Amino acid sequence: MPERVVMQVDLDYFYAQCEEVRNPSLRNKPVVVCIYSGRGGDSGAVSTSNYAARRYGVRSGMPIARAKQLLRNVEAVFLKADLDYYDEVSRRVMNILRKHADIFEEVSVDEAYLDVTEKTKGDYEAAKELALKIKTEIMEAENLTCSIGIGPNKVIAKMASDYQKPNGVTLIRPDEAVGFIAELSVDKLPGVGAKTKQILEEMGVKTIRDLAKQDPQKLISRFGLKLGNYLYNAANGRNDEPVKERLEPTQFSRIVTLKQDSQRIEEIEKYVDEICRDLYSRVSSQGYVFKSVGVITVSDSLSTCTRSATYEHPLDSYEALRSVSTALLSRLLEEEKIKIRRVGVRVSDLVKKRGQRTLYDFLTS
DNA sequence: GTATGCTTTCGGC
DNA sequence: TTACGGCCGAAAGCATAC
After folding, report:
1. With pLDDT > 70 as the criterion, what percentage of chain A qualifies?
2. Is the distance between the Cβ of A44 and the closest atom of strand C smaller than 7 Å?
3. Which of A4, A209, A281, A356 has its CA 20 to 30 A from that of A136?
4. Contacts of A154 by beta carbon, 8 Å cutoff, 6+ apart
5. CB proximity A246–strand C (7 Å threshold)
6. DSSP alpha helices (H): ranges in A144-264?
7. Which nucleotides of C are covered by protein (CB under 7 A)?
8. How far apart are the C-alpha atoms of A100 and A107, rounded to whole Å?
9. How far is A308 from A306, CA to CA, in rounded Å?
10. pLDDT at A57 over 90
11. Burial of A114 by CB count in 10 Å (0-12 exposed, 13-18 middle, 19+ buried)?
12. d(CA A224, C1' B2) / Å
């Protein structure tokens, strides 16, 4: 296969940066974007924060009360996340990115891969020019900065964009890839979290250079065929995962925090009813029915439990979703003697309703 | 034993 | 000192069929 040119674009501290754009007086101050649980006070978690807040140790996922503690002596701003607004900004930015790619893959609200092999004719200098042009265009249209990584595959492009942020451009040519990642810690490799890192550490593997020298059979026996092969190849700068368009969502879910912890099914069912109503209207308005339904619970000790069911024919009404969800919930509550803090419902195995144009139809028309 | 498909958990943002 | 969201996609885990 001829050498590819892959670009990864990451919008910097996205939610907090959107807030700075909407209200420029926030710049220079620590900004913490929060999702409140609805239990009152500071109950909830930090979604993201700007770099001024990060300097004080604020991190995504942290309890809001802890972030307030870290920022107690500072003039900081805490905001409730406005997800609809961020989605709208994201949609406009993705439309800019899409038109510069041969193949475009939207990974999340703030991240995308672009295969630009043909657009650049395989020339890395041209790719760097294109990255600068994209950054300028996003700045002029939305006042947003982003970080861009360019490399011969998705893994190298992602690690390149992580290398210099915020507002960076990092170019790694094919012959530089192995050297660029060699001395980084293994957990810089996408897909290596705390668990894999610890196992590797026990094998005496700390850096990606160490990982690249391992016997691939040994990695496969420890991590399985798929992850073992991935680790071995990625550590050696190789990754053949294609950039591919994601035209349709694969699941929808909605989860809420109860006003207070409960183990009473009648109480929890009230929330499930409401969630099903809301979720069904969202899924239906986007033209989908679904063959799988799952309920998710989070206990008072923050452990997660789920139950799900798959049917041969798609479910296509709120009533069906509610009745399946409550049945799954009662089964879960019988089997697990836990106090529930949060409850949610998920639908997957989506099927497009008849007569609905797919996103693919729309984009290619 | 292996392939397949469904359920549950994990991890990133 | 503690504190704790709402999504998503994909991997891991498990059961079943052959």
Report:
1. 96
2. yes
3. A4
4. A6, A8, A113, A239, A241, A243
5. yes
6. 154-163, 177-182, 194-202, 208-212, 216-235
7. 2-12
8. 16
9. 7
10. yes
11. buried
12. 15
For chain A residues 266-325, those near strand C by a CB cutoff of 7 A are 298, 302
The answer on pLDDT for A70 being more than 80 is: yes
What residue type is A293 in one-letter code? V
Q: Give kind and range of the element (H or E) at residue A329.
A: helix A318-335
Amino acid letter, A72: R
Give the domains, in start order, of chain A with CATH numbers.
Answer: 14-82 (3.40.1170.60), 184-244 (1.10.150.20), 251-352 (3.30.1490.100)
Per residue in A185-213, pLDDT (tens digit) is: 888 888 888 778 888 888 888 899 999 99
What is the CA A38 to chain-centroid distance, rounded?
Answer: 23
Q: What is the pLDDT of residues A236-280, one digit of tens each?
A: 999 888 898 888 888 999 999 998 899 899 999 999 999 999 999
Looking up tokens 């995504």 gives A60
Does residue A42 carry a pLDDT above 60?
yes
Question: For strand C, is any atom closer than 7 Å to the CB of A237?
Answer: no
Nucleotide with C1' nearest the A304 CA:
B9
CA–C1' span, A350 to C8, in Å? 14
Contact in structure between A271 and A256 (CB atoms under 8 Å): yes
Q: Given pLDDT bands bounded at 50, 70 and 90, which one contains residue A357?
A: low
Average pLDDT taken over every residue of chain A:
90
Is A238 strand, coil or helix?
coil
Residue A40 has pLDDT above 90, yes or no: no
> Closest nt to A66 (CA→C1')?
C3
pTM: 0.92
What is the spatial distance between Cα A214 and Cα A111, in angstroms, rounded to a whole number? Answer: 31
Name the nearest CA neighbour of A138 among A172, A171, A177, A167: A167
Q: Which residues of A are catalytic?
A: 111
Contact between residue A109 and residue A119 where contact means Cβ atoms under 8 Å apart: no
| Mean pLDDT in residue range A171-180 | 95
